């Protein structure tokens, strides 16, 4: 029964993501391997401030919360109000603050240094200028040695990150669809 319920939820989520493809940039939730990998560089030795761009149904959000300390803070940006409502109901954690707004408005909501950015927003559907602006604003708000980790279905946007970040690494996760994670560090 539990597996049947999980399958129904996965199908429902895939339908919702597909209906909103140009907003979510995804046709399904990220794989468990990607959830673990994208959180790889989150500091665990101290209290941190984490930004998540593109919270969706909260799979990566849960992975972040499982990794950060009890006194850390996670600000999760999501443009879809339905997704915000879903996560508010399904994840009860005082460390999580959901922001129903786009990543391009980070300066309107965050006025402190960020220790890590975890993102699944669809850069492929943004203009080059908007994408670079989001990356630059995040970079400017980050502490030294902080990582910005991004998951996408293409490696095409990697150059935008290389233009701004000091060190960038690309990891490929084969599957349907193939997922790429960019790990970019500010030095």
Describe the structure.
- It is a single chain.
- With 187 residues, this protein is of the alpha/beta class.
- It has one domain (2-185): 3-Layer(aba) Sandwich (Rossmann fold).
- Helix content is 39%, strand content 24%.
- It is built from eight helices and seven strands.
- It has helices at 2-19, 21-24, 32-38, 59-67, 81-90, 106-109, 128-141, 158-164, and strands spanning 49-53, 73-77, 96-99, 114-119, 142-152, 167-173, 179-185.
- It has a seven-stranded mixed beta sheet, sandwiched between helices.
- Residues 17-27 have low confidence and may be disordered.
Quick summary:
The protein has 187 residues and is α/β, with parallel strands linked by helices. It is built from eight helices and seven strands, in the order αααβαβαβαβαβαββ. α7 links the parallel β4 and β5.
What portion of residues is helical? Answer: 25-40%
Strand order of the largest sheet: 3-2-1-4-5-7-6
- Measured by DSSP, the beta-strand proportion falls in 15-25%
Order of helices and strands: HHHEHEHEHEHEHEE
Q: Got a strand count?
A: 7
CATH superfamily: Vaccinia Virus protein VP39
Assembly annotation: single chain
Rg over CA atoms, rounded to whole Å, is: 16 Å
- What would CATH call the class? Alpha Beta
| Weakly predicted, low-confidence segments | 17-27
The overall pLDDT, averaged over residues, is 89
Q: Describe the sheet with the most strands.
A: 7 strands, mixed
Could you tell me how far the N terminus lies from the C terminus, measured between alpha carbons in angstroms? Answer: 49 Å
CATH architecture: 3-Layer(aba) Sandwich
Tally of alpha and pi helices: 8
Shape: globular
CATH topology group: Rossmann fold
């Amino acid at each position: 029964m539990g597996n049947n319920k999980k399958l129904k939820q996965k199908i429902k989520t895939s339908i919702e993501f597909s209906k909103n493809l140009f907003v979510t940039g995804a046709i399904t939730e990220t794989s468990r391997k990607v959830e673990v990998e994208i959180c790889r560089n989150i500091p665990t030795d101290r209290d941190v401030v984490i930004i998540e761009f593109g919270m969706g149904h909260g799979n990566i959000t849960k992975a972040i919360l499982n990794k950060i300390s009890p006194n850390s803070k996670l600000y999760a940006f999501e443009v879809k109000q339905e997704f915000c409502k879903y996560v508010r109901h399904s994840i009860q954690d005082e460390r999580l603050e959901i922001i129903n707004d786009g990543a391009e408005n980070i300066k309107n909501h965050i006025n402190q240094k960020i220790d890590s950015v975890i993102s699944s927003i669809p850069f492929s559907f943004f203009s080059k200028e908007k994408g670079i602006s989001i990356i630059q604003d995040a970079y400017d708000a980050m502490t030294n040695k902080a990582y910005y980790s991004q998951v996408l279905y293409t490696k095409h946007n990697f150059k935008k990150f290389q233009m701004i970040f000091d060190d960038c690494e690309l990891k490929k996760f084969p599957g349907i669809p193939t997922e790429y994670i960019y790990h970019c560090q500010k030095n």
